[in-house]
Design brief:
two-stranded antiparallel ribbon; globular; disordered C terminus; mainly alpha
């Protein structure tokens, strides 16, 4: 469970400071770390790829609104329902990177206060084996919170429903965008030879990947929980608020900003 997240975080830990190199002539250090560790390359989202879990584990996945007993969902394809709604059935396939099904269960139950705690206590976080690894994980999410404007949100509360969340997603990203997003876009951006992680004062996803990742939350029914988690954990903390000053500065893949 959460294998792809664990592999990525373990690789980042191996990099130490995870500084990404300028110029393009040097090898991608994240890719190089994967090769040295002889870690497998993730699949394109097939049934036997990363994130495959036994059916009905946890058991809530075979209850409403997930109903995973009805079969596997190919998360490489469009995540939302055919009529453009948030789709909890999309949790019945291979997990997307940096997503957590136990957290999704809490979100579906309206337990927004428990969503972030559940993710931070997940197997993927425990498997990182070090505080530094968890700091990388938190760095990625903290930057995402500020870059997507979640720290400025005034609409999401602990009582926000998935239907209200869909309306917020429409305002932020457009229904035609988030409801047609295919999980393969996100997975491709995190393949080891094209991974879109940057180091501009802290490890984070590229602007395009952050947008796709946010829209995947809309399609999988956890957008409001993502926003609440941001406001609960990352927006108030002094260590992470530094991201608020840099998220709008230009950057490119695998480039470190000059001092």
């Amino acid at each position: 469970m959460q294998a792809l997240v664990t592999v990525l975080l373990s690789a980042l830990c191996a990099l130490g400071s995870a500084v990404l190199l300028k110029g393009g002539a040097e090898q991608n250090p994240i890719l190089e770390a994967q090769r040295k560790r002889k870690l497998p390359i993730p699949t394109d989202g097939g049934v036997d790829g990363y994130g495959k879990r036994p059916d009905c584990v946890p058991e809530e996945l075979c209850q409403a609104p997930f109903h995973c007993e009805e079969g596997h969902w190919n998360t490489a394809e469009v995540l939302a329902t055919a009529d453009g709604r948030a789709n909890y059935r999309s949790w019945c396939g291979n997990e997307l990177p940096f997503r957590n099904e136990e957290g999704a269960i809490k979100c579906s139950q309206g337990k927004l206060e428990e969503y972030g705690h559940t993710i931070l206590r997940s197997d993927a976080m425990r498997d990182v084996h070090s505080y530094k690894g968890q700091a990388f994980f938190k760095s990625i999410f903290a930057h995402h919170c500020f870059a997507q404007g979640f720290c400025d949100d005034t609409k999401v509360t602990v009582n926000t429903t998935v239907e209200e969340s869909e309306a917020l997603c429409d305002e932020r990203y457009g229904r035609e965008n988030w409801s047609t997003l295919a999980g393969k876009k996100i997975k491709q951006m995190l393949w080891y030879d094209t991974v879109e992680l940057l180091d501009d004062g802290g490890v984070h996803m590229s602007p395009q990947l952050e947008r796709y990742y946010a829209m995947s939350g809309c399609a999988q029914g956890v957008h409001h929980c993502d926003v609440h988690w941001c406001k609960q954990f990352f927006c108030p903390e002094e260590d992470w608020r530094a991201f608020a000053k840099i998220v709008n500065l230009p950057s490119g893949p695998f480039f470190t900003r000059s001092a």
